[in-house]
């Protein structure tokens, strides 16, 4: 088959699988897809369509962040990150996602290889069982633990298929210095820990001598590809169709969520007048007993609002978008670090006033007419990757301070750690609230972002600068040995001295 025939088969759904391609957003629209007012770059500028883990160099992050790194004397080395872009080379795409790209004007310039699969909804019943268990937990609190367990099963089922088996290790236990020396001389050796000094028991950690790669990685791969496709469909096939671009702006996006600013009090108010009927039909036009809907990216984007029964049922339907949180202000710092805040006003209730009056009477105080008090405070929802949220006090103040001064804010992590056959508690201070953001180019105003001028390449770049010390190291033993583990080095030195 020619490249054109392969792409035509993708569009017509006669080819299903994976294709490794070079793909890009063109400078001009192709004949089969054109936006009436925007160029391809303007159309995809706010949400870059191609996602890839790649090297982000200092040269492409823009002057604003380059100046920040220079001001605070931070590293300018390339960072390997999952970013969005306008073009990619040798990227492996699932055909449903590639079909969406082709139908929205992206151009494939080269095809490297193809892998074909037979499409089948083999996990439909499994997903249905997980959703039904969560619905049962919503209606019956006594089944909440079962619902949480099934949720964990649903999440871990896909994650377990994309584990890196090449990082799996073997752990063995030996007694005596002789067996320990033999284990340390193996090419798979990684780490040695002395457990009981008097009886010379050792724990040996080694890389596996043989690895059987038997996980169905295509399952996890396709789930992640479908996740990217679903977020693109929500933005370009729903938001861009039902809401004018001047009435919304993306603030933050993750694998399965999107925070946006709206030019209205709620989402319904910014729907275009000519699209209100179609929008309301999707919410209320399918109110029939026993009728179940799926997220088809055509009519059903949100849970139905026709009745409480369907609303509760659709709440646990996979693929439908639900409102996660609403606020008045949002600050986004580095990746996965953001806060949404809204002002809450509370008035002292009659119950509290009555209790206060009874308390005064019990204390034999003079009767006093108590007036309701109005109290205003900020309610927040925030994410702080790498820092325990329980230890963060006054998060809104921290975010504002980092945004204003550009200096990183810190938080604490507390936990338990095993070291040298002993369990220790630790408290770690970490600068997790960082101003630095390089997944998109931040402009001079410190707020507006545009896509990086970067060709995404999933493969790791070859390192050209190799020091003399690095060239002298060879063999599996030196590659796998943890040179920074002081305890490991001390034990080996002691064994070698005794053997000489």
Classify the oligomer: single chain
Structural class: alpha+beta
Number of helices: 15
Q: What is the global morphology?
A: globular
Estimated share of beta-strand residues: 25-35%
Molecular structure report:
Among the domains are: 3-121, no CATH class; 165-214 and 464-499, no CATH class; 334-434, no CATH class. It is built from 15 helices and 18 strands. The chain has helices spanning 3-11, 40-44, 63-71, 95-103, 124-139, 144-159, 177-184, 217-242, 276-284, 308-314, 350-362, 395-405, 468-472, 475-480, 486-499; strands at residues 17-24, 50-56, 79-85, 87-94, 107-116, 169-175, 189-196, 201-207, 248-253, 258-262, 329-332, 337-347, 374-384, 409-419, 422-433, 441-442, 449-450, 455-456. The protein has a 4-stranded mixed beta sheet with strand order 5-1-4-18. Strands 6-8-7 form a 3-stranded antiparallel beta sheet. A hairpin with a 2-residue loop joins strand 14 (409-419) and strand 15 (422-433). The N and C termini lie far apart (67 Å). Residues 463-481 have low confidence and may be disordered. InterPro entries: DNA/RNA_pol_sf, DNA_pol_palm_dom_sf.
In short:
By secondary structure, the chain is of the alpha+beta class. It contains 15 helices and 18 strands. The chain has helices at residues 3-11, 40-44, 63-71, 95-103, 124-139, 144-159, 177-184, 217-242, 276-284, 308-314, 350-362, 395-405, 468-472, 475-480, 486-499; strands at residues 17-24, 50-56, 79-85, 87-94, 107-116, 169-175, 189-196, 201-207, 248-253, 258-262, 329-332, 337-347, 374-384, 409-419, 422-433, 441-442, 449-450, 455-456.
